[in-house]
Amino acid sequence: MEKKKAYYVSDSDGEYGIFVVAESVKHAKRMSWGHECLCNEEYIDLKAKWNKKVKVDDLEYGVQDDFKEGLRRGVFSFLDEGYDCDECESEAFLTKVGDKCLCSDCEDKLDKTEPSEVQKR
Ligand SMILES: [Zn+2]
Q1: Which of 3, 28, 53, 83 could form a disulfide with 7 if both were Cys (CB 3.0 to 4.6 A apart)?
Q2: What is the rounded distance in angstroms from the CA atom of residue 15 to the CA atom of residue 36?
Q3: How many angstroms does the Cα of residue 78 sit away from the middle of ligand 1?
Q4: What is the pTM of this model?
């Protein structure tokens, strides 16, 4: 059996993308084509990029609709609005902090209690 790989499949500009578990670029593109995030794209314009650092053995093949899981695993570097912060549950622009998806407010709060502050004393 082929090893499962994490792909970031995006439009021709690379601006919008989805997280797909597939065996190959071709496989990833075939499963992504027609997805709501990429519906304006022609099959030929889709780009699939294998992220070798991301382990996806525990996931099923196909488009991963849990975008926060994609952020947690490092397929996305951020999520635009439309998803809830793990801490305050408000809908915001999220980035990955540790193993959580946080909004900028919650990230700032974490910064204030950084361990480096404690170590200085
Ligand atoms: Zn928050």
Answers
A1: 28
A2: 14
A3: 14
A4: 0.83
